[in-house]
C-alpha cells in the first residue's frame, strides 16, 4: 500500500492516520469532513453532529486540527467547516469531490456517504460500485492523504420513510 491509506471503519481512535511523532510535533492537521446530512449535523442538538465530538476530542488530546470545506455550521466552540450536503448521494458527492480536494488538499478525508442512496432507493444494487469509484477518485487526486470511510448508518422503516421526506425538503 505504501503511503496510500484507505481505512474502512467507523471513526475509531484505534486508527491513527499519522504517527505519534507527527501528532506530537504540533503540526496542524487538515481534515475534510465529507458526506451527507450526517456530516452536516442534521438531527444533532448542536448542529455539528459527529464533528463536535471529534473536534473536542482532538483539542482535549492536544492536537491542532483544521476542518476544511465550503459549508459551515455547528457550535461556536469548534471549527465548523465541512462538505456535508443533506440529501446528497454518492454520485453527487463524487461529481464535486475533485474540486474540493484540489482546493483544500486535506491530509485526512472523513467520508460518511451512502445513506441517501438507500433512502432514495437510487439504484441501490450499484451503490458499492459508485462508492468504489468515489474512493478511487479521492485516492487518485490525493494519494498521500488518509481516507476514512464510515459504514452506512443503520436504518429502520421509520427512518426510511423520514428519509424520503427529508430528500423532498432538501432537493
Description of the molecule:
This protein has 171 residues and is of the alpha/beta class. The chain has seven helices and seven strands. Strands 1, 2, 3, 4, 5, 6 and 7 form a seven-stranded mixed sheet that branches. β4 and β5 (81-84) form a beta hairpin. α4 packs parallel to α6 (127-141).
- Distance from first to last alpha carbon: 39 Å
Question: Proportion of β residues?
Answer: 15-25%
Which class best fits the helix and strand makeup? alpha/beta
Residue stretches low in confidence (pLDDT < 50, at least 5 long) are 1-19, 159-171
Largest sheet: 7 strands, mixed
How many whole angstroms does the radius of gyration measure?
16 Å
Question: What's the assembly state of these chains?
Answer: single chain
Overall pLDDT score? 82
The H/E string reads EHEHHEEEHEHHEH
Number of helices: 7
Which descriptor suits the 3D outline?
globular
Helicity, as a percent range: 40-55%
Question: What's the count of strands?
Answer: 7
Amino acid at each position: 500500500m505504501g503511503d496510500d491509506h484507505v481505512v474502512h471503519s467507523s471513526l475509531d481512535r484505534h486508527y491513527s492516520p499519522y504517527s505519534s511523532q507527527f501528532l506530537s510535533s504540533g503540526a496542524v492537521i487538515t481534515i475534510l469532513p465529507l458526506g451527507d446530512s450526517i456530516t452536516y449535523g442534521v438531527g444533532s442538538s448542536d448542529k455539528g453532529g459527529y464533528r463536535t465530538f471529534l473536534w473536542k476530542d482532538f483539542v482535549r488530546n492536544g492536537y491542532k486540527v483544521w476542518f476544511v470545506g465550503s459549508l459551515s455550521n455547528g457550535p461556536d466552540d469548534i471549527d465548523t467547516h465541512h462538505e456535508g450536503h443533506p440529501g446528497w448521494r454518492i454520485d453527487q458527492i463524487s461529481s464535486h469531490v475533485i474540486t474540493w480536494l484540489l482546493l483544500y488538499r486535506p491530509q485526512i478525508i472523513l467520508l460518511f456517504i451512502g445513506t441517501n442512496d438507500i433512502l432514495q432507493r437510487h439504484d441501490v444494487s450499484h451503490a458499492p460500485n459508485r462508492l468504489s469509484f468515489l474512493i478511487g477518485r479521492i485516492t487518485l487526486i490525493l494519494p498521500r492523504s488518509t481516507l476514512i470511510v464510515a459504514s452506512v448508518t443503520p436504518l429502520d422503516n421509520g427512518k426510511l420513510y423520514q428519509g424520503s421526506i427529508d430528500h423532498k425538503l432538501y432537493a
